[in-house]
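Please fill in the sequence for the structure shown.

STRUCTURE ENCODING:
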């Protein structure tokens, strides 16, 4: 019975992100993907972060500046791991530079996956959803490309984890906007 409730909960969570997000802020280029691509991405996120499946993260993932700072503060990775990435964010008349990191190699992305999986599995709530207009605006300021689906927020206590996919259906960017937006 407990497994059936968990399965039904997972199915419900997978349906939430398919609800259309028509609140795209003016000036943001947002390219929608097919329902099939989005459903595949949601299943992948659920398998990677919430189940005990053997599916793994790719061998290189860009960690945005907010998530990278949390990983450093919690001593998950040393500061010199991977490749440094500077994210340039317009702030009034100036440009703010925030450090991020590209986490490379299977052993490192596995640590990242195990950390997120343990956090989400221990959580009472775990929702995969489309980005809000505010999340789109923040992400848009940080990137030099169009926002293209599939892209999702994994929402859980303490997390608004932005997860962006490349054209091969692999996660290539993760950042946590929770402290920034809450």
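FILLED IN BY: designer on duty
SEQUENCE:
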């Amino acid at each position: 019975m407990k497994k059936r409730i968990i399965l039904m909960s997972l199915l419900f969570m997978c349906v939430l992100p398919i609800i259309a997000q028509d609140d795209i802020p003016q000036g943001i280029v947002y390219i929608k993907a097919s329902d099939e691509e989005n459903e595949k991405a949601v299943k992948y996120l659920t398998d990677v972060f919430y189940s005990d499946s053997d599916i793994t993260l790719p061998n290189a993932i860009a960690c945005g500046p907010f998530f990278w700072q949390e990983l450093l503060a919690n001593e998950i990775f040393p500061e010199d791991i991977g490749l440094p990435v500077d994210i340039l964010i317009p702030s009034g008349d100036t440009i703010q530079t925030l450090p991020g990191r590209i986490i490379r190699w299977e052993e490192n992305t596995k640590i990242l996956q195990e950390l997120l999986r343990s956090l989400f599995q221990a959580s009472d709530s775990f929702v995969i959803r489309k980005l809000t207009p505010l999340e789109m605006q923040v992400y848009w300021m940080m990137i030099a490309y169009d926002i293209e689906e599939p892209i999702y927020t994994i929402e859980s206590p303490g997390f608004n984890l932005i997860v962006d996919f490349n054209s091969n259906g692999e996660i290539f960017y993760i950042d946590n906007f929770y402290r920034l937006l809450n």
